[in-house]
Amino acid sequence: IPLTYTISCVKPAFILVLCRRLSLSGDKVHARKDAHSNLLSKKETSSLYKIQFHNVKPDCLEAYENLEAEVQNKLHQDKDYPCEVVGSWTTWYGEQDQAVHLWRYRGGYPALTDCLVKLKNNKEYMEFRKERAKMLISRRNQLLLEFSFWNEPLPRPGPNIYELRSYHLKPGTMIEWGNHWARAIRHRQENNEAVGGFFSQIGHLYVVYHLWAYESLQSREETRNTAWLKEGWDVNVYNTEALIKRMESKILIPTKSSPLQ
């Protein structure tokens, strides 16, 4: 449309379409020809992740942690189960009396299905679920994939605190988010604080999770302030803010059995 064209003559619906197609930054994706899971996830691996949120009765938290640790250790030692716990935490700041677990299934959906079938036939595990149910108020989970530009989360020594940041995006903006963060992540990798980045496949959709590790809350504050001094970080924040419907931050403390300490 020529710049001299009178905007009042353009129908509102056309303006909306036009605005979605125009971009000064060149980061917007106009016509997708593949699922964002194929465009954004790692091609060299086929790992699937599951994140669990368990709201625990306050007086059962210690017993819950001990029971979870026992079962997780058994599953790790049994090579017949194609799953591994990446990290386990309890919430320090955020929703209280909540446990968060991140699992990895190497082999994708077939590995997940294989594991679920075997666990369903494991009498000891089914007894564990019954005992655990007595300690819970509610629970939910999601299946996730890794962003290709984040490092795979690997065990690390402690002590650390962890921040789980969740971003609920507007539908249709996941690729644009990935385009920005593929460049922005380099501003946050110098201090080894970047643990993992994921996006949802099943459960609440268009949800992004960023997991960070810090020595302390003060270290977190200093690290985040330092990022603002780097050229390009402010642009990433500005460009991604418009894609977010809501966001949340949780500060997590690793359990004694967590591979991420």
UniProtKB/TrEMBL annotation:
UniProt keyword annotation of Lyase present: no
Keyword Cytoplasm: no
UniProtKB keywords: Autophagy, Mitochondrion, Transit peptide
GO biological process: one example: mitophagy
Protein localization: Mitochondrion matrix
Pfam families attached to this UniProt entry: NIPSNAP (PF07978)
Sequence ranges assigned to domain NIPSNAP in this UniProt record: 162-259
Gene3D superfamilies named in the record: 3.30.70.100
Major subcellular site: mitochondrion
The family this protein is said to belong to: Belongs to the NipSnap family.
Role: Protein involved in mitophagy. Accumulates on the mitochondria surface in response to mitochondrial depolarization and acts as a 'eat me' signal by recruiting proteins involved in selective autophagy.
Name this polypeptide is given: Nipsnap homolog 1 (C. elegans)
Natural source organism: Takifugu rubripes
Gene: nipsnap1
